[in-house]
Amino acid sequence: MSEKSVTNVCTRGGRRNWTKALLAGCMLVSVAGPWAGGVSWADTSSMIKPSGPAQRIPDFVELVKQVKPAVVSITSMIRSDTMEGEGGGMGGGPFPFPFPFQMMPQPSKQLIEARGSGFVISADGYVVTNNHVVKGATKVSVTLDDGTTLPAKVVGRDGKTDLALLKVTPTQKLPFIELGESDDVQPGEWVIAVGNPYGLGGTVTAGIVSARGRDINEGPYDNFIQVDAPINRGNSGGPLFTQDGKVVGVNTAILSPSGGGSIGIGFAIPSDTVRSVVDQLRKTGHVVRGYLGVNAQVISPVMASALNLPAPAVAGTPPAGALVASVSQDSPAEKAGLKAEDVITDFNGQKIASPHDLAVRVAAVAPGTQVTIGFVRAGKAQTATTKIGNLASATGDAGKTASTAGGQHLGVALAPLNRDTRQQLGLPQDTHGVVVSDVEAGSPADQAGIRPGDVIQSVGGQQVDMPKAAVSLVKTAMAAKKPVLLRILRDGQSLFIAISPDGSTAGLPADNGAGSGEDDDN
């Protein structure tokens, strides 16, 4: 088993498994020696001396009374062969650890009850939750704090950020809560999580913000708030509140060495991301992202010296910025005059710490928006302006597969499998194929259980290394009204998925061989 497991906190099935824990006490014996007592240091000039009045632990009673009516429990009926699962991260399989030898689960049409959390953001019944709580659901219901259960419609889903927007039709106005400013949240700040862990609706836990901007390699736009408030399975999609009663995050994942419950390391999607994604889902049902057109990489200290970059303000810290490795033809970056070896340091007034930081910032900008880019070239700081493009349009062959004459399409967005993508997915550098960057809701690919992060290695027995080749083979098969057989790589394991033009699907267990029991360090 892996040493760690990032786990979706979403409960599957109706059974509750209770575990009794025995606490063993221990005795600490200390022996005083001649060195016992206070320690004196000769030089105290750099000693940290915290200042400020002592503060009592806050009381959240009144806050919880006010916000709890807007927190809901969500129940989804999901086909077991399309389950997002709870282990191995946001998009892992239905078990919290790698499958043992020859134990790949067999495909099934059985309906599984999945439980999660959510919160109401408007009086007319819009509800925010996680994508993995409702992905593949044939039926979704929302239970309000007063016990009322309402059927819910999935307005839209975004796999890249693991967010979904639901709509219920209430008989009266619903109490709702406001999204706060996650950029204002600071490590050490008290936060409160409310949700439906293990089916126990309305559970309240508290803790502090441990860190911001966490990238846990679970998606291209990871930018999580890390918290130590206890978060468990079923908390997925629930709100994370600050003491002013505003939502600053959506609880999404936990780090669990055993794949079990909380160990005090939880992750929440920042409210600034939630606001942008939900607004688009509400208007169009899908998310449009900005596109710059650069392939960037991390800067090592040696690279920084070779590029004549200024030394970091704090000695020993990694160089900030994103080194441009290549620029796409006819892209906004090319029109701005960016070139390979440029180092992007600022984007629209925001400092860029890394390529991942740049990707998050660019994606959040609406296509057509004019932006200013700060960069260093040959040791000199420069600026350029350009209009951000549309990621879906710019990727061309990497976009959704085109409809065939019969109107059938697979419904996936494909991207090349480059060095950075292999690194993000934890794949060997010699892995071939094309990566699934998005899946269209309700499409044949979605119904088959294909997920963002899957690597398609062959279509109809023919190896594919570029999105254009994969699209061509898929279109040919579907135009001929023939099933499409895909060999995909998921979480280090190979499996086949067959998709028929009529939407029916079938999966085949992979021939895992002796490698199927290797550790998965997601």
TrEMBL record:
Domain of life: Bacteria
MF annotations from Gene Ontology: serine-type endopeptidase activity
GO cellular component: periplasmic space
Pfam families in the record: PDZ_2 (PF13180), PDZ_6 (PF17820), Trypsin_2 (PF13365)
Catalytic activity: Acts on substrates that are at least partially unfolded. The cleavage site P1 residue is normally between a pair of hydrophobic residues, such as Val-|-Val
Key words of the record: Hydrolase, Membrane, Periplasm, Protease, Repeat, Serine protease, Signal, Stress response, Transmembrane, Transmembrane helix
UniProt subcellular location: Periplasm
Active-site residue list: H132 (charge relay system), D162 (charge relay system), S236 (charge relay system)
Enzyme Commission number(s): 3.4.21.107
InterPro entries: PDZ (IPR001478), PDZ_6 (IPR041489), PDZ_sf (IPR036034), Pept_S1C_Do (IPR011782), Peptidase_S1_PA (IPR009003), Peptidase_S1C (IPR001940)
Domain PDZ: 414-492
PROSITE patterns in the record: PDZ
Annotated transmembrane regions: 21-42
Leading EC class: hydrolase
Region (Disordered): 500-522
Residues that, per the record, bind substrate: H132, D162, G234, N235, S236
GO BP terms, alphabetized: proteolysis
UniProt record similarity statement: Belongs to the peptidase S1C family.
Name of this chain's protein: Probable periplasmic serine endoprotease DegP-like
Organism: Acetobacter fabarum
Source taxonomy: Bacteria, Pseudomonadati, Pseudomonadota, Alphaproteobacteria, Acetobacterales
